[in-house]
Amino acid sequence: MVLFKEVLLPKCNESGGSSGYLPLALIMQYHIVVAVAICSAVFVDSRKIRGISLAYRKFYKEKKTFLCLDGSKIIPFDQVNDDYCDCLDGSDEPGTAACLNGRFYCTNLGFRPCYIQSSRVNDGICDCCDGSDEHDKRTRCPNTCRNLGQQERAALEAEMRAVDDGMHLKRQLIKEGVSMWQEKQNQLKDLQRILSGLQTKLEAHRKRKLEADAHQAKVMGVLKSPGDGAGGKTAARIFGQLDINKDGSLTVDEVQAGVVNLQDDRSLTEEEVTALLGGPGPADLFRFQQTLWRSLQAAKKVKIKADLRGDLGPPNEGPATRAAPSAARQGEANLKEMEEALETTRAEIGNLEKVLSTDYGSSREFLYLQGQCFQLVVYEYTYSLCPFSHVTQKSSTGAEVSLGKWRYWAGPQEHPYSRMEFEDGAPCWQGPPRTTLVTLTCGTETALKRVREPTKCQYIMELWTPSACEQQREARRRGVHSEL
Amino acid sequence: MAAFAGRMWMFWAAWLSSCLTVTVAVDRGNFKTCDQSAFCKRQRAMTPGQSPFRALLDTLELSDSRLTLQLINDNNKVRLLLELYRLQGNMTRVKINELKPLKPRYEVPDILVTDPPTEPLSVVSRDENGVVLSLGAEACRLIVSAQPFRLDIMEGPQVLLSLNSRGLLMFEHLRPRKDTQSDPEGSERVEDPANADQPPTEKAPDEENAKEDESGMWDETFKSHTDSKPNGPSSIGLDFSLPGVEHVYGIPEHADDLKLKTTDGGDPYRLYNLDVFQYELYNPMALYGAVPVLLSHSPQRTMGIFWLNAAETWVDISSNTAGKTVFGKMLDYVQGASETPQTDVRWMSESGIIDVFIMLGPKPADVFSQYASLTGTQSFPPLSALGYHQCRWNYNDQEDVRAVDAGLDEHDIPYDFIWLDIEHTDGKRYFTWDSSKFSQPREMLQGLMDKKRKMVAIVDPHIKVDSGYKIHNEIRAKDFYIKNKDGADYEGWCWPGSAGYPDFTRPDMRAWWASMFAYDQYEGSMENLYTWNDMNEPSVFNGPEVTMHKDAIHQGAWEHRDVHNLYGFYVQMATAEGLIQRSGGVERPFVLTRAFFAGSQRLGAVWTGDNAAEWGHLKISIPMCLSLGLVGISFCGADVGGFFKAPSTELLVRWYQTGAYQPFFRAHAHVDTPRREPWLFGPENTAVIREAIRQRYGLLPYWYQLFYHAHRTGQPIMRPLWVEYPEDAATFTMDDQFLLGRDLLVHPVTEEGARGVTAYLPGRGEVWYDIHTFQKHNGAQNLYIPVTISSIPVFQRGGSIIPRKLRIRRSTSCMENDPYTLFVALSPQRTAVGELYIDDGHTFAYKENKFIHRQLTFANNTLISRNLVPDSSFSTASWIERVLIIGAHKPSKVTLRTADGAESPLEFEFDATSSVLTIRKPGVNAGADWMMVLH
Fold first, then answer.
1. What are the UniProt keywords, alphabetically (chain A) (predicted)?
2. Where in chain A is the domain with CATH 1.10.238?
């Protein structure tokens, strides 16, 4: 039979507010406790009610008998707090150490009330700030509640202010985040526009080249050999590509400009080219088809230079046009630039998409951390935390070691954005790869505040950031109200 | 932090290049086999049968206390001097040395607590081939036979023990070096005055030279190390025969079963203190410590052999019944064809003399007191040292220490000591603190003191060679370092890099070392800081077998060879002395050591070294500590959880449960393993571990009383069953369960996934009670006990009374004034006896009768507390809270009579299902006389 509802009281050693959730109620409750204690002092006596909170006093009213709070047993009231454990639930000895499972209520006037384990009553260590747990007089405990209360109130107020400031900063960061996000989105759009522009241009470029080649082949009067349709056509196209001055024959120079060694992209020597063309002197399309073309098709030794591949030939140049070789090369260079620009744009888009696909919190309040790094020196090591990227440790002797790469948010369900997990750092000697867990704490500045390595190669860091501040909640009330 | 891995790498690479993964077991190649140890090989090459020794009866001299007699080796005419002593307490001492050695041979000092008192020997009869001596009144005779020489100790018609009965006495006399090329003085041997009266050897010198060269007498190389052996061969060996004996025990430290195995066909058991990286189980390899004491046991008699020699020692054991099946033995018995079972033991040491103490029992308890009279008893530790110890290599900094301390409190887990391993120092300079991680050691210690807790910091004997280090400078200035063979300070490689090794065999060095623990010398120390001596084998990473070169030189020109197994003993001795001195002789010290020798029990606690998180290692912790207990060292424990590797949760839980019932209870872990503080494995496992530790704290009054007895009498704390049931042959090989004192039987669960264990409850006609359920079981039976993860099968003997404190608090000193609950477990005769011992828990005041010692007896329905110390001058605030009478009938009333004659009724409850009578709150002071009657 359960007669009472568990009242949530803090343990004595629990610190006041922890960042993020400020117990507003706390500040108020000190005053309430004072009032209550003064009232109750009138009818309070003796050891019988020792260690009992106000809310429970009703169960300990002076009678002939006492019913253990779990209802398991009735004992003479004399046996309450007589330093012998009678009740299975320990409820007959709230003021002594007799029951292993009992608890003692520290009134802690001026500070906050709390429960301690019965085993801490009269053990020579002052646990309640009012010293009430050491009532056997062997140990003298000064009453430190007033001081603690003042300190804690000051600390709480400071923390409240800090959280307020933090929240203020956070709102700014969220705002900044919104514009940053927008900026990045715009950036992405711009890039995508540039990309499609480039693609269109390139497409046109290539199309013209294709037409030019086809035209050239026709002009040259080169007929495809029977049964070799596609091959002949391709051979003709490649021939056209290599034939820079479009004179219908390939010189050694021209081959050297367009064909390279398959393995290492090395340019070919004159001897090699002569051998590839089956003899000295310029080669016409037919000879090309019989010699170099076969080598290219076999792909054993040589290949078309990368920047020529896929190029369908210079635009706007008919076979009749005899453009200078320099002009032709100019065209090639433009093409190359255009392609490079295309690649760069693609990469930028990729990066930006990656950045934009990362989770920066419910209001993107952590977006501002993107691209930043924070450092802390601990003993002989400099730690560097780059959120959403990586963590490193640099020793004073200079060696830098990866402590992990960004993986995911690892906070509990209620606070998913309270922890960051970095994994797969440099492997430990004889051990697994290093990992780092970053806890985010509400602060008015963004800074790496603490690094620990409780187990070798498993790092725990504490990052302060306004973005971790959360609205003060009422949930952290400290119990007094429920007792009134 | 992680660069630590770098540093680790440096020295591990230096000495363990072949042993690179944490998961592999010992690299056997790093350690010698008997074949690779030249003297062992030479000794073992000698086969039984042809002892060259003859006793020269005409040289017999008998004084009141000793008999001397010369022995001659008929092969080389070298004479030995035999000394026989009859010692008080039914012991015989046999000493054999060279009659005129070339130079003195080492005799082990400081191990015997006194010169053992003798009793008169008398000659009963003698003839041309022998002398019969009387060893006192019990028809005990010592027979000296002249040719071949042998000694037999008889009781009535029974031979108890024989020496040299197999003719394996071997005594390599010191000799000058013969090969003139490397030692020009060698050729003068013939003129040597010491040997002038002896005829030259019969063999041609060349022949003998050749033989010597072969056998590594003048130098010996193992791996890359050469032992220069300037003194040449010096080994000794002797065999002992034990007729009627099938079970021998002792000679720790080995990771092996309790009952020693025969060594035929394998290596002998080796005693040579070594830092064995990841030791293997079930083999005779040497480990960190050595106690050259062997116990023999048969249903009729228990005896002991103490071979007082500190050099490398090997022990061969053979038995004429080994290998016979039980059926074979029975057949022998039925057919009457059986020879008497016999065990033969052969001791072989590299140098020194033969100095043997034969402890004649006859009961196990007699052997323990006999041995204790020689080497002393277990030191009486501060009560707090019997609590739970929280250790790890390493707690990283003060904040870490604070957090672990807070974590234990938060999870309501009691503990008394938190430990700091080598990383707490400034660069492995012992007696110092890392200036950033432990910048305020006193503040940290004060924080622990405020919680009534203590700390242990490591102090190893290797001293960093660094001219900026005070300790090193002083040792060098005082010339206290051990020297290498060339006379320079010996330097070896250890944790700090290059290190010197102070010569702890020097009394002046030990006195100086002790003075370093003074509060004004050891900066940052406080009275709640205690010490741990590790690596004191000594461990030398780049030395032969990871230890010191045998030709290193100690004070008095003794070689390290002579004193090796003593080094760790002396380190702990000097450290313990330091802790005593710093308190002005008031406080009891607490020092843990890894290396040890006979007598180390006087100095503190021992642990079984760097074990591993494996089930086999959990299991072996029982025989390893039992073996140590049998040879006096009761304060023994194994690293809870296992040092190397990460334990599974189940293994960790089971280890806590086992460790809670072993004398030294410390969790420890290697730096590379994940954290394993007790609350890191989920609330259920935290609860189970908490419960195991709470059981330990509840039973501390009993533990403390056991330590008091061990300290006073030398009786072991953790006992094999046969010690209390010497005639019950079923117990002789048992080492998966044990007794604590006489009254608690523990069968910890050491099998993975166990659903039950089978415990053997000894004692026909006795009963045992499950301490958790109070269920009664008959003795002399195998009992199957179903177990869950929270089970620790423990039984209290019917007929015993065990005091407990059931208010479990944060530490032992928090529980100081708490009341006692007496657990009275009735025998079938409805009687029980027990004791209650109380003192201040930490000073030497008990030596001045400042303690309470009471006898508790239950008989005729009356429980009486009687004073055992009439002139006791100690008082306690503790009182008797509750009495549980287990196996009781329901009384109509219970009354209490106090010393003033007042009689008062007591309330009680009776649980008929468990037959447990709980008497409520007698309330009498624990030091008072009182009597409780059940009507």
1. Coiled coil, Disulfide bond, Endoplasmic reticulum, Signal
2. 217-327
Range of weakest confidence among B200-214, B280-294, B296-310, B330-344: B200-214
Q: Is A335 helix (H, G, I), strand (E, B) or coil?
A: helix
How do strand A435-442 and strand A458-465 relate by DSSP bridges? parallel
User: Looking at the partner chain, which of A98, A453, A456 has a beta carbon nearest the beta carbon of B807?
Assistant: A98
- Residue A43 or residue B32, greater confidence: B32
Q: Architecture of domain A217-327 in CATH?
A: Orthogonal Bundle (1.10)
Segments of B791-893 assigned E as strands: 794-797, 800-804, 820-825, 832-838, 852-859, 862-867, 880-886
User: Which of B274, B237, B81, B240 is closest to B151 using CA atoms?
Assistant: B240
For B750-793, what is each residue's pLDDT tens digit?
A: 999 999 999 999 999 999 999 999 999 999 999 999 999 999 99
What are residue A288's phi and psi, to 5 degrees?
A: -55, -45
Closest approach of A133 to chain B, Cα-based (Å): 13
Which residues of B are known to be catalytic? 534, 610
- The Cα B434–Cα B436 span in angstroms is 6
The pTM assigned to this predicted structure is: 0.85
Higher pLDDT, A37 or B593: B593
**A72, A123, A435: best mutation site toward chain B, by most B Cβ within 10 Å?**
A123
pLDDT of the residue at B20 = 37
Q: What pLDDT does residue A209 have?
A: 75
Q: Measured between alpha carbons, how far is B388 from B400 in angstroms, rounded to an integer?
A: 18
Closest CA to A407 of A427, A385, A423, A429: A423
Distance of CA B573 to the CA centre of its chain: 15
Distance from the Cα of B348 to chain A's closest Cα (Å) equals 41
The partner residue sitting opposite B675, judged by closest CB among A123, A431, A455, is A455
Amino acid at B930: W
Euclidean distance between CA atoms B807 and A136, whole angstroms? 16
- The fold of A367-472 is Cation-dependent Mannose-6-phosphate Receptor; Chain A (2.70.130)
Is A84 close to B881, i.e. CB distance below 8 A? Answer: yes
B812 touches chain A (CB under 8 A): no
Q: Are B819 and B807 in contact (CB under 8 A)?
A: yes
Which of A99, A122, A430 to substitute to test the interface with B, most B CBs within 10 Å?
Answer: A430
Q: Which of A35-39, A109-113, B608-612 has the highest mean pLDDT?
A: B608-612
Average confidence (pLDDT) over A154-177: 90
Evaluate whether A435 touches A421 at the Cβ level (below 8 Å).
yes
For residue A117, the chain B residue with the least C-alpha distance is B412
Distance from CA of A201 to the nearest CA of B (A): 54
Alpha-carbon gap, residue A102 to A95, rounded angstroms: 9
B882 interfacial to chain A (CB closer than 8 Å): yes
Contacts with B813 from chain A: Cβ below 8 Å: 124
Please, are residues B773 and B797 in contact by the beta-carbon 8 Å criterion?
no
Contact B2 A453 (CB under 8 A): yes
Task: Indicate the pairing of strand A400-409 with strand A419-423.
Answer: antiparallel
Locate CATH 2.70.130.10 in chain A: 367-472
List of chain A residues whose C-beta atoms are within 8 Å of the C-beta of residue B4: 456
With contacts defined as CB-CB under 8 Å, which chain A residues touch B808?
Answer: 100, 119
Residues 6+ apart with CB under 8 A from B742: B719, B724, B797, B800
Find chain B residues with C-beta within 8 A of A84's C-beta. 881-882, 920-921
| Mean pLDDT, rounded, for B898-926 | 96
> Predicted ipTM?
0.89
Q: Quickly tell me which residue has 């076969």 as its tokens.
A: A294
Q: Does B21 touch chain A (CB under 8 A)?
A: yes
The minimal CB distance from A429 to the residues B5, B400, B881 is found for B5
Q: List, in sequence order, every residue forming a beta bridge with B54; answer none if it has no partner.
A: B72
With an 8 Å Cβ cutoff, is A125 touching chain B? yes
A280 near B CB under 8 A? no
